[in-house]
Every structure is written in C-alpha cells, then in structure tokens.
Amino acid sequence: MEEERSVQMLEEELSREKEELYTATQWQLMWRKFRKHKLAIMGLVMLLILYTLGIFCEFFAVYDPAKRDTNYIYVPPQRIHFIDESGKFHLRPFVYGLKQESDPITWRRIYVEDKSVKYPIYFFVKGDKYRLWNLIECDRHFIGTKEGYLFLFGTDESGRDLFSRTIYGTRISLFTGLVGVFFSFVIGCILGGISGYYGGTTDIIIQRIIEFLISLPSIPLWMSLAAAMPKNWSPLKVYFLITIILSLIGWCNLARVVRGKLLELRELDFVTAARLAGANDWDIIVKHLLPNFSSYLIVNITLAIPGMILGETALSFLGIGLRPPIISWGVLLKNAQNINTIALQPWLLIPGIFIVITVLAFNFLGDGLRDAADPYR
C-alpha cells in the first residue's frame, strides 16, 4: 500500500509540473531554464556583489582613496592572521604592524611584519569621514582597524591604499558604460526597426549610413574627439561626452540584426491583424515586433556592457580616456605599464583581476540568458 501511495503521489507531482509547464508564460519558462544554468547564476551573483560595492564604495573602502602616507610606499598586501607567532588561535582576525627595512643587495626599501604589534580587524569601524553619494556624511566603514593600517591590496607609489582605490574605481568602471550602452540600444532598435519595417529607399539610406559609420576607426576617432574638447573641462565630463558621441555611432551592429528580424516578422499574420485593428506603424514596431525577439535584445545588452568596460579600461590605460584624479580600473592599471613595476610590485595588477571577473560574469550571464531565451529547446 505504501508503494502504491508513493507512486500515486509521484504521478500527481509530475502531472502538476506538466500543468505548470503548459500554463506558464514565456518569462516564467525563461526563468525556470535560467535557474538551471549554474554559471549564469554565479555570474549574476558576482555582478550583484560588484555593483553593490560600486554603489556603496565609500562605505566598503577602508580609507579615503586620496589619502597619502609617504612612510608606506609600495607596501605589499598584508596577510590576515587568526593564529599568532605563539600558536594561539584568535577568534578575531588581525594583522601585524609593518617594519621598514632595506634590502642588503638592492638597497630597495622593503616592509616586513612586526610581530610584536597586532592590530585587530573590526567590522563597521570608525574611520575617514566621507559623504555617501555626496549627500549623507558618515565615518563608518565596513572593515578596518582602530589603530595602525590595513592594506589588503597593498599601496601604490604615493602610499595610497590600493583596496580603497579599487573599490572606488568599481563605481566609475561599471556605471560609465551604461550610458553608452543605453543610447546605442535605443538608437539601434529604432533605426533598425524603421529600416526593416519600411524597406525600400528608407532601408537603403539607413544601411549606407551604417556602412559608413562601421568603417570609422574607433581609437583615432576617440583621440580626435578628446583633443577637440575644451581644455577647462574635467576629465570625467570629457569622457562622458565622448562616450555619448561614440554610442551614437555604436548602434550599427544591433540595427542590422533588428532589421533582419523585422524583415522576417513584418509579413506574419499578427502584424496584419495589428494593422487591421488600427495600430499605427510606431505601435507595430515597438509593441508587436520588437518584443517578439526581446530575449535577444536582453542578451545583446548583457554582452555590450563588458565591451564598454574593456573600452574604458583600454583607453584609460593608453592615457586618452579617464585621467587622474578620476579613479577607474583603467586609470589604476596605468601605474603598471612598465616591466619593473610588474616585477617588483605585482599587486598593482589587482584591478585587472576585477576586470576579468566582471567580463566573465557578464559573459556567463549572457550565455544563460541566451539558453533561456528558447525555453522549449
């Protein structure tokens, strides 16, 4: 009897799952399949963490990113300890103090742990004052020490904490490209939709414009735009304006895909029914045609953002993008341009690890969305 009852319960559960599957909406089916993509979920979690760090970078940073201390130049990342030199375990983690010495061969200044001094690490500790989002004045930091220094990623050539600067750079690097992606997405959808829906002369004109814009080399164009901007503008203002200008010519590939999709869909029955119901051309394009491949558009946005991040990083690294005192991952990597720096201070490459993690997370998320876009497959 128990076996029959368990079999019956299993059959009821399977029939309930089938019923939910048949009655689910398109978005529900996409979510069911997306949840099964482990790498996509991992990428989504990583992006949520990174964007949280960027939004609340003042709180998560240990120190003011502009704070300098010439007594601690090129300090390597400090190790966090739970066990002291006597073998005693401490529930609260701590770091040892730093002692400056000279290398007997190269006479280079080096730092070693001073095991006679311990600095416990606290959460929600008081530290340098800051204005959260330039509105709320605070002095609480997520992590820090009440005495001494905590250099989780080491320091740079001016004695500034690299961990705090990397966290501050997260905000600029992750959010700057969103403006360009938004403009490119809107323009690509509209012009691609017009080109594919109307065809004829309109299609020919738009496609010739796209071919001309694609032929323009991006880096020389960026350099010329940067040189043409007023000299009294701040680096961030110049970068935002150039990003918007380049986004006005970065919509071409998306517009071509949208055009091809609309050429395929415009003759289907639901479009004819919309025309007979009195819908105008704009409503047909925006409310009926574009939503039919919205899953592709979502994936396109997901994969376009890391392209913007890599573009900002490359241009800032070359010195034609963002410039100090603005802090971004590309600006931080500019300090690691020579071989000596990489050989002697490899921790200056840590912002590059954040770039790799971000790009991989976006690609994993894009792959998951691409698979979920066809939930019946």
Describe the structure.
With 377 residues, this protein is an alpha+beta fold. The chain contains 15 helices and four strands. It has helices at residues 2-23, 26-35, 38-55, 57-60, 162-198, 200-214, 218-228, 235-247, 252-265, 269-276, 281-289, 294-318, 329-333, 339-344, 350-372; strands at 81-83, 89-102, 109-132, 136-145. The chain has a four-stranded antiparallel beta sheet. α3 crosses α5, α5 (162-198) packs across α11 and α6 packs antiparallel against α9. The model has no long low-confidence stretch (mean pLDDT 81).
Give the topology, please:
Blueprint: H1 2-23, H2 26-35, H3 38-55, H4 57-60, E1 81-83, E2 89-102, E3 109-132, E4 136-145, H5 162-198, H6 200-214, H7 218-228, H8 235-247, H9 252-265, H10 269-276, H11 281-289, H12 294-318, H13 329-333, H14 339-344, H15 350-372
Antiparallel strand pairs: 1-2, 2-3, 3-4
Helix pairs in contact: 2-15, 3-5, 3-15, 5-6, 5-8, 5-9, 5-11, 5-12, 6-9, 7-8, 10-11, 12-15
Sheet with the most strands, sense and barrel status: 4 strands, antiparallel
Our count of domains comes out at 2
How are the strands of the largest sheet arranged?
1-2-3-4
Instruction: State the share of residues found in helices, binned by percent.
Output: 55-70%
Terminal Cα span? 39 Å
Rg (CA only): 27 Å
Report the portion of residues in β strands. 5-15%
Named CATH topology of the largest domain: MetI-like fold
Summing up helix and strand content along with how strands pair, one would put the structural category as alpha+beta
Q: How many β strands by DSSP?
A: 4
Number of distinct helices: 15
Mean pLDDT: 81
Pick out the low-confidence regions: none
The CATH homologous superfamily of the largest domain corresponds to MetI-like
